[in-house]
Please model this.
Amino acid sequence: MIEESLYRITSLVVVMIAVFLGWYKFKLIRLKKEDAEEQEIKTQARQEAIRYSIVIGVIFMVTVLGISGHLL
Amino acid sequence: MKMMKGVLIASIPITLYALYSYRLPALILISSSIAAAVASEAIYQKIAGRPLKIQDLSAVVTGLLFSFTLSPSTPVYAAIISVIFGIVVGKQISGGFGNNLFNPALLGRLFLIFAFPAALSPWQTRVDMVSTATPLTNFWQTGEMISPVNAFVGLIPGSMGEMSALLILIGGLYLIYKKYARWRIPASILATVTVFALAMGQNPFFHLFTGSIMLGSFFYAVDPMTSPRFPKGQWVFGAGVGLIIMIMRFWGWAAAGMVFGVLIMNMFVPFLDAKLKN
Model:
C-alpha cells in the first residue's frame, strides 16, 4: 500500500515538473521573439507553466484513477 | 473575509452533525485538516515572502470543506498530506486566494483518492461505527436504493459532511440568501441531476440526497474564485457538473462523481467567462 502511494505521488510530481519545465521553456522562447522586458517575460512564462502543470496534474490523476478503476 | 465567515456559519449545522455522528474521529479529522491547511498556507506565504493572509479565513474554510469529504476512518496522515497538497498546489503556487483555477478542497480530495486509494474505506455506520457500504456505493454495486427520506434527514452513513441533505440545504440557502453563493449553479446541478434520473426511470430524490451532490452543489461548485462570473456560464457550468456526476454514477469507475465533476468544469471556467458574457 505504501509502495503504491509512493509510486503514484512520485509519478504525479514527475509529470507536473516535466510539464512545468517544458511549458516554461516553450513560452520563454515564444515570448522572447516579442519585444518585452526580460523579467516580465519570465514572470508570465512561469505563471503559465504553473497553471498548465496543475491542469495536467489534475488530468493525470483523473486518468490514472479511471484506468485503475476500470482494471479492478 | 465576510464571505468566509458566512461559509463557516453555514457549515456549523453540518459540522455539529458530523461531530455528533462520528464523535472523536470526526473531531480529530476536522481539527487536523483545518490546522494543516492554515499552517501550510502560513508557511508557504512566509517562504514566498508574501504578506501573511491567514486571517482572511480562506484556509480555515478549505480545511473544513476538505474534512467534509472524509470518511471517519480516513488516516489522519493521509488527510493532512492531502489538504496540504490542496492548499499549496491548488492555491498558493497559483498566486494565492483569487488566482486559483481549481477548488483547493476538492483538489485535496482528488489527491487523497489518487495517492491513498485505500484511505477512504472502510466506511462506518453513523452510530455504532461498524464498517458498511454507503447507500451510494450500494446503489452503484447492486442497484439497490434506500429511502430518500432517510438520506434527507441524515440517517445514513457517508462522508462527514454529506450525511444530512436537510442540514446542507439550510446552510446552502443561508449562503444564497446572503449572496455568498451564486444560486444558478446549485439550481442548474440539481435540475440536471433530476432530469437525468427521470430519464433513466429512477427516483430523482434518491440521487439528489445521497452522495455529495447537495454538499457539492451548495458548498464546492459555488466557490466564487473557481466558478463562472456570468449567469449563462453559471448555468452551463452547473449542467456540466450535474452531467458528469450522473454519468459517473451510471457508467463510471467510482460512485461519487462530485469531485470529478467540479474539478473538470473548473478547467472550463476561463473559457465560459470569455465566451458567455452577458
Remarks:
- Chain A is about 90% helix and 0% strand.
- The longest helix of chain A spans residues 38-71.
- Chain A touches chain B at residues 1, 4-5, 8-9, 12, 47, 50-51, 54-55, 57-58, 61-62, 64-66, 68-70 (CB under 8 Å).
